[in-house]
Amino acid sequence: MTIAVELGLIYAIMALGVYLTFRILDFPDLTVDGSFTTGAAVAAISIVNGINPLLAILMAFVAGFAAGVITGLLTTKGNINGLLAGILTQIGLYSINLRIMGRANVPLLGEDTAITPLRAAGVLGGPLGIGAFALLAVVLALVLVWFLHTDTGLAMQATGDNEKMIRSFGVNTDNQKILGLALSNGLVGVGGAVIAQYQGFADIGMGIGLILAGLASVIIGQAILGQRTILIAALAVILGSVIYRVAIQLALEGGLNPNDMKLISAVLVVVALILPQLPVFKRRRRKKAMAGDPDAAEETPGAAALAADAPATEPTPTTTTENGVR
Fold first, then answer.
1. Any idea which architecture 1-306 has in CATH?
2. Which end of the chain is more exposed for a tag (fewer CB within 10 A), N or C?
3. What is the pLDDT of residues 274-291, one digit of tens each?
4. What are the domain boundaries of the chain?
């Protein structure tokens, strides 16, 4: 089970990238399936050619960043639907990834990777290994939270909240989308690079269907911790990623066929999406909305009207960005 937790913490890096597009930009980016493999491919081939593993991770970030820029340019300058732009980039990356690796699989057995010191110290699969990967995920989450509170980050949030409004204020929303997609896929590329070093290989098929895992992590985590602030939302993504991997592990230990993993992933996402719609959860959100809870107001239709009847509380912000909510 500790392996599942470690994997969940590493995949949380990818999930943070999905969070940036899915929640902040409100953009359906399917580039992830390709950029994850791109990050793994760049890192693996770099390490095989003698490049420092940490520098290889940085190169994976740059490669993912470039993939995100392509999707951003297709959708903003090419006026291609965002969903289709992501699919086009993802398909193109499949061939590029094969070009980078030269074959479908690049093993890292016998190579020094960023994980080698942890493996040599025997801490993988134990509390220290979990602590090391948790530290990495939390640090990246804090960097993302810091960025989203800068002027550029606030403009990016506003672009996702109300693109027309923020454009009327003179913000170039195209640039915000391109930057958001680039940073998102940069994080996804880093996730791919770390996973390749952790598992000891990069494979052309390792990113297929990964967007589902990213979405599941975001939805499951925020269903538990909520998204009252960006910090809580980011930490929720990490928690969701761990829960997702543990759930997969439990399903496999329960006797399910590993070939059914994609089906299990889809079922988990469906359950996470349907559960909040059950009457018991709706009643709970309705009560919170009537009490003026902004977290519930985000998810409850007609919450503003309910809150208007609630006892007077502090003034309600006009946009989620002003309140730091995501």
1. Orthogonal Bundle (1.10)
2. N
3. 776 777 666 666 666 666
4. 1-306
